[in-house]
Each structure stands twice: as C-alpha cells, then as structure tokens.
User: Fold these one by one.
Assistant:
Number 1:
Amino acid sequence: MTNIRDGFIVTEKCYHCNKKRVFFSYEDVPPKDEYKEGEHYWNYAGSAQSFKFDMECTNCGKTVSFEALMGLMHCVGCDARCHMNILSQICEGQNVWLFAALAYHLGSEIDLPVENLEILTDYFTSRLRTPGKKILVVPGSLRRDPDICRGEMLKDVGMLSLTPET
Amino acid sequence: MTVKELQAKLDLKPLNEASDKEIEGAFISDMVSDVMAGAQPGNIWVTVQTHKNIIAAANLVDIPAIIVVRGKQVPEDTLQMADRVGVTVFSTDLDSYSIATKLYEAGIKPAG
C-alpha cells in the first residue's frame, strides 16, 4: 500500500431527480456547497473521513493506481436476494470473507478492473495470520440494489465532530 | 499471549466470547482508515469507536480483539457482527493512555 492520501468521501443528492453521486475530496473540510450542473441540483448529503491509496509491487516496483476506489464494503446480509449476501454466506462457511470494492468515476459507480480486484485480494490475504482465512475482494456490482444496500463501508463514521465546520 | 490470557491479566470486561487467538502487538487509533493502513495482523486494537465498521476493519486486517475505552457503550449490532467474524470486544473504563500502559506492562508492544 503506497501513496496514502487522506480526505473525505462526500455524498451529494440531486433534489430534483433524487440521483446520488459520490466523490472523494482532498480538501481540509468537505465541500457542502449547493450548485446546479446540467439538469441536476446537487446538495450535500453527508461525508466521512477516509483515505485513498495505490498499490506497489514489492518485487518489480510497479505501481497500480486505485484512484477510482472509494472504499471496501462488508456485507451485513440486509437483502436475501442480493448476490453479495448469498456469496458471502457461502464463503463465510469456508472462512473466506468478502469485501466489495466500491469505485466511482465522475460521481457514478463503476467496477474496478479484475486485475485490481486480484491485487487487493492478494494483498489483504497475504497479511492474514489466521490459518485458512482468506479475503476476497469482489466488484461492487455484485450488490442487487446499491440504493437499498446497508453494507458497512470502511470509513471513519462519526469523526467529523473533530473537524472544524466552515 | 492469547486474548483469553490478556483478559485475565488486565481484568478486562469481555462483551462477547474471548478467543484463544494470539495477540502480537497493539495499535491505538480512532480511525478505521488508520487501522487499515497501519495495523498489523494479530494486533490488539484500542479505540473509542463503537460503530460496527470497526469489526469489518478488524476482520480485514486480522485483528483478534478490540478494547473499547472510556466505558463507551457498544451497540448490540456491533457485538453481533463481532461474533460473526470471531473478533473479541472488551470494554474498559480506562482511557487509551492508561490501557496502553497496562498493555505494555503485560508485555504487549506497539505495532510494527
């Protein structure tokens, strides 16, 4: 893990069409401005401290960018028909723990390339000490409906009380 | 030292079942992102946070136990998730500095 950059995951909603978008802000305080962009009227809907990173191969020194990755999400089993939930239940029995890589480009959710998912899987699994345990990082699109998903994204909930308000 | 042995040595209050997993080193932080980037597998994690994503982070990094300081109430859904992934959660009325001192005296060194 290299090039660690701190910042905020910011969520905005259009009060016209209810569309949601997520982006990462490197500013000291998350932006809370309301603004119009095309057909949308974007409003601040929340933020949490988090970080971005890239991955560097310790053998060859190659660095792979994870700029699109917003965070890893742990399934809480909220939707019985969700593929992420079904797969999580199957895997947990074998001590394999699923994390969905939630990635965004221009505010919209995308899937990371398979190669990047494999890099994260290998990295986090290689650090484990518990025998037989494995981490499997899967694409965010495994979730049946991102709008109702209550999965736990790894971010710093409740830390904003420590951040000065503008 | 195992999680169970540490519980007895420091007189910690377990909020779920203490495991026999080995503890190696300690990490103190209230930021999940900090733990993902800096904690080592086997570390015991000292924090004031009680949200259930601390359990997801502990599972990702292979942290066997968390000590929640300053007597913070840990929500039931956090403990349910801890049971699911096999992470022991302790509670103490001490602050981070005091519990860090006790961990050091018990032979638990910083992460690294």
Note: Residues 162-166 of chain A have pLDDT under 50 and may be disordered.
Number 2:
Amino acid sequence: MRVAILLLAFSGLYRAQATDVTFDRLIHAQQDPGEWLTYWGDYHANRFRDLSQINDQNVAHLRLEWLFQTGGSGAFEAVPLVVDGVMYFTTPDTGIDAIDARSGRLLWRYQYTIPKGAKYCCGTVNRGLAILGRRLFMLTPDTRLLAIDIRNGSLLWNVEVASSKVGAYGGTEAPLIVKDKVVLGTAAGDYGIRGFVDAYEAQTGKRVWRFWTIPASGEPGNETWGGDSWKHGGAATWMTGTYDSELNTVYWGIGNPAPNLYGARRPGDNLYSDSVVALDPDTGKLKWYFQFTPHDTHDYDATETPMLVDLPWQGRIRKLLLEANRNGFFYVLDRETGQFLLAKAFAKQTWAKAIDNKGRPIMAPNIEPTSEGTVVCPQCAGATNWMAPSYNPLTRLFYVNVREGCDIFFSEPPVYKEGTSYWATNFRAEAQEHQAGRVTAIEPLTGETKWKFPLYSSPWAGTLTTAGNLVFAGDEDGYLMALQADTGRLLWKVNTGSRLVTSPVTYQLDGKQYLTMPAGGVVLTFALP
Amino acid sequence: MGKRRSHAIRNVTLAMSLMLVAPISSLSSEEWGRGQAIFNSNCAICHGRDGSGGRGPNLLGSLKHGALNSDIEIVIRNGLPGAAMPKFNLEEEELHALIRYVQSLRHAAPSTLHAGGDRTAGKQLYDSQGCPSCHEIGNEGSTLGPNLTRIGASRSYEYLKTSIVDPSADVPEENRYLKIVTRDGRQFQGMWVNEDSFTVQIRLRDESFASFDKQNLKEVLHEKDSLMPNYRFKDADLKNLLAYLSSLVGAPSPASETQRKRRQR
C-alpha cells in the first residue's frame, strides 16, 4: 500500500486512505514521523517528530498551505490525527471530519447529536480521537463511547460509559488505545462524582474493566477520606493517559478532590486525587501511585501529561516519568516503581515550603481558602494545565507553556446534590490583574529552567518540538509561533485571529512537511513554499 | 477541573431613590448562610460584602434592571452586555439562595439616598472644568478616557466621589494608560486599547490609534495611576457634580461595548 502511494504520487494522483492502524504501528508511532497516530502523537507523549525539512534556518518562510472551515463554534481543543494521508478530528460542535491532509478538502463528516434530555456536566468541548484498525473512537460530551468506520464515517457502535440521566458526568478527552482495548476516563470531578478509568473492547464496546480512582470502604486508601466523603470525592480522569509497551503499564493523571476549595468536608490525603496512577492495561489493577498534592484545596488537578522519557539518572539509564504539574512543581519519577526522584518549582508558588525527599509537600502556613479570600500561587487554573508539553531528545529539553499569576481563593461549605456542581466556591485573579505566561524550557535531570519566552497572557495551548531545532507553541492571544529549540529565540509567528486552546501537530507526505493548528473553528496548515 | 472564571465587574444600579421590595418573610438561617456564601465568593469583590457597591454598583438602592426576583435572576444568569457584569453559571438552588440573600441585604439596609445636589449646576461644572476633553457622554466629548454615558449606573456614588477626589485610588485595568519608549528614543503616552505578546495598541490624546511592534520598543509601562488630575472642589460643587454623574444612565456606546467584550473574553 505504501509503495502504491509512492508510485501514484509521480502521476500527480495521491492515494489517501485506509490501511489498518495496528497496535504495532501505534507502538512505533515516533518512528513514523509522517503521521500523527494518537492524541499525544506517540505513547510516551513526547510530542517530538524526527522531521527537519522545516527547521530553524528556514522556518521564517513558513506560509499558509490551506485552511479548513469546520463551521463550528466554541473551543476547538481537538488534536487532529493524520493517518495514511487523511486527517481526522472532532469538530467544536461534536462532529468528526475526515479531510485530505494534502489539500484540506472534506472527505466525509459524521455528526454526533446529543439525545434530547441527556444531561452532562462539562459543555461540548472535545479533545480528539483514537484510532485502531479501521475504526475511530470518540468519547462524547454525554459520556458515550462511539466507534466510527474510517472509510465513510458510519457509526459501528455506541455504548454508555456513564449515565446522562442526572448530568453528573461528562466526556471531553481523546481515548487511548492499548492492544485491543479503548481506555478512557471521565470529566466532572467538580460535580462530586467518584472518578474511574475504564477499558472497552475495541471490537464490541463491551467494558472489560473499571479502575475507581477513589477506593471504596474497606479498600486500601479509603482511610484517606474522612467519613463518607469518598463517595463524592471527584478525582476525575479527564485527560488522556500514556503507555509504556515494555512495562505494559498505563499512566493516568487523576483530578482534584471534591469539593475543590473546601477541604474540611474530606479530612485526609484523599487518594488517589491529584496523583498519577500506574495501571495494568489488561486488568485495570493498580501497580503504583504517586500523589503530587495530598488533601488539595486549590484545584490542582494532576491531569497534566505524564510524559515518559528514558534518560541517564545518576549514572544509569532509567525509565522516567516527567510531569510539569498544575501545582507549580516539575516532577521526575521512576516509572517502573513510582519512586520519587526530583521536584523543582518551575513557576511562582506559595503553597508549599518545600517538597521532602519522598515527594510529599511541606505545606506553607495560611494558604487555606477562606470566606474572605486567600491569595495563593499558582492561580487556580495552575502553573500549567492540560496543554501538552513536549520533549526533544536532541536538545534534551522539556518545553511547557506556563501560566503565571496568583488567585484569591474563596471557600464556603458547599451542599452536595447529584448532578450539580459541588463547590459553591470561587477564585479570582489577584487584584484582578492581567495574568501573563511564558514558554519555558526545562532541563529534566535538574528541573532548572534553561530559557523562557514571555507571553502576554496565560496560555491554554501546548507545544510541539522537532528535529529542525524548533519548538512550536501557541498563545492565548492567537499567535502560533516557532522558537529555536536550544535558545528560545523567536523565529516565526502568525496571528491566527483566535485564542489557541490545543496543541500543534506536524506530519510529512510525499516529502513535504506540514504544520497544523486548529484555531477558532478553523484548521490551519502551514508548509514551506 | 476549575475552568470556571469570573471577571472584573462593574454595572447596574442607580442609587437615586429607595424602592422597597417585598419583605423577606421566610428565609431560614441555612438558606441565608448559603446565599451569603455565594455572595461573598462571587459578588462581594465588586459589590462589597454589604452590597453597598465599589467597582460595581450599590445593590441596596433601586436597581436599574429591576428589583423583582425575576429581574435580578435575569441579570445574574445573562450578565449585562456592555457592562462588566459577567453571567454566572449557578445551579438553580444556588441562584435562588443568592437572590434571597441580596433581597435580605436590601431589606435590612438603611436608605442610601444621597441627599441633594443640583444636576444642572453639576453639568455646568463638568463642562467648565474641561471634563469633555477626556470623557465622552453620548456622542459629546473625547474618546480618550472612560466613557461616562452610563457611569451613574455602573459605579456606586461613593466610588464616583473617590474617582473625582483621588482618581488613582482604583483604576480598572482597561482604563490604564501606557508609557511607551521606542528603541530610537521616541516617547508615547496613551490609553491602553489592546495588547498581545508581540504588539500593543493605544489611543493617543488626539483620539487616534497607534500600534507598536514590541520588538521596536525599549519600554512598555502600564501605569497604575490615573491620567486624571485630583480635583479639589468645594463640597457643594462636588455634590452637584456627583448628582449629575449619578444621573447618567444611558446606553453604552457600541465602541466601549466592543472593548469590554474583548477584555472579558
């Protein structure tokens, strides 16, 4: 099939479509830089591509190749997949579009319609698709899992992940394929749910296992929740996990405990909220966990990317897990054992005096939210959040978009009612000032910041890095930009006209490298002239 | 997940006369506490913890958009386009507890009538002191400073008073001015209009716009003080001026609406 594509290319006719995306192809996604096969681009979430046609010497000439109008409105948070010349993405209004990745022309469209009367917590935002075989998988806002035929967008099956009767749940993330299973989680931690990670058979949609992110009464860890608070403790799983095929382990970030800013309702560490959990993808059994923020009262979800990188740590190559956490610290863990190796603040933080040698924070005084308001840094939305970081093995740097600023955290005892928000609390920017941001390059072995590129506003967009010594990043005021990966120097920028709320991807077809970024209701694709 | 945001606030009422609403007969202490919790964490930052206003208007007098529960509900649910009042996404019960709490504050409040002042004399003072050279009312005056067309509805009386005698006491971010120095040493001063990581736009004293590429700038200073001088009026004059400003409750100009929407994005 690949040979056929190549031969046809010479006649100006391009084949685009439909070879099987096997599990093996997904495992080796990073060695296949012409494609973008998973939400993170590869199982380790490095968001690095060994492509250098566009590089720090010529990126200034990058220009618009095509743009595609989805016609949708709302936040375009999806990361497109690029498979055999076809780009697939969820649109801002719960559709799926398949377009020609060379020309931007529509091939087919599937529109998901949320059933009348369905209730769900978290709007219609969607972050994208997973692919296996000839099927795409989408988690819908009303928490259903769909399997779609990649040949024509027809629906193959549609199963319930969580009930949409009362509106307690919501689906926003791109699923993760592991072997023959579709692994995913749910949003709505702030609605007082009990979070979970699920696995479904890709073939049938049948649920294979469920891992509850809050242990039930009698299970280890339940003692970290006072009284019955575990039943409505949140700990949602609203971002896609990562996977190590050699260790056969899935890593999933767990959200904040509920109620988010009112801790008196839930005395204890509140496991496994604000943790990363290592799960066996065959059984859903917990291998280990690491909790970043015990008994969190500032909404510091640990749903940031658990990135997997192998690096020499004190003399030997170790399998590491890197995470720039919402709480303002950059962490390095051993991902075989969960052992804590390093934590270093990458942004202004005032909630912890230090992190001890087990990785547990030593809390600063007077940081609890109150009815009068307490100023704490980082801001409630975090020093970073779900926007993707990236790691470049050539520069050995970790690139993350950072949100600066602090918030005033207010807290009042909330009332739990199923299907409604469980917080009754709020937060506001300190002194109502504009909150800035930056792109930051971190040396993962020390946590030291190598360079910073300032942004006017706190960003919600992620980064991508390539062998062209480039980092692509987006900002809140609409700029897509290219920075030199080793220095942070600005080399190219374009004003897309819309705030950016997802992460760029790159791919190469017929020897031509493309850069794609969704913005507003539009998919923008750039290339060299 | 914590993506809910609230914004800087300003808006609604006018404290000209006190219009009594239905007495609150059946507010349990539990409901009251719940309403207070929601008010304190969402509303107090602009309307004050006692509801008497600040950047946002006084809620204890008559309310420009109506004082019935249903009127207040509409304002909270939808926000006020063109003003800084955002919409609040509250659950049904929270909303009703909040409205009942606001009504209880209003019911308990002493009359907030601000005695006297001559609007006509206030307008004469406004014109003779040169206020229109920086401020616009309706279509009259300069677009340089904050538009005052509905300032009586969007600020409390006390806030307006402070804004005249001590203009730098509280300058909302969108009313700041910038000092800009280019790399070749030229200096510019103007009101902030828009900004991003790479460019900045200001309004110059002659009301024209100027746009700068930040890489050509040596300095961009966001001044926290106001450009407006401190006015030292006699008490009677100040009262007249406040009477005039408090009477300004017209529709916002489309331009100021656009700008505020941008800020609230």
Note: The domain at 2-527 of chain A is CATH 2.140.10.10 (Methanol Dehydrogenase; Chain A).
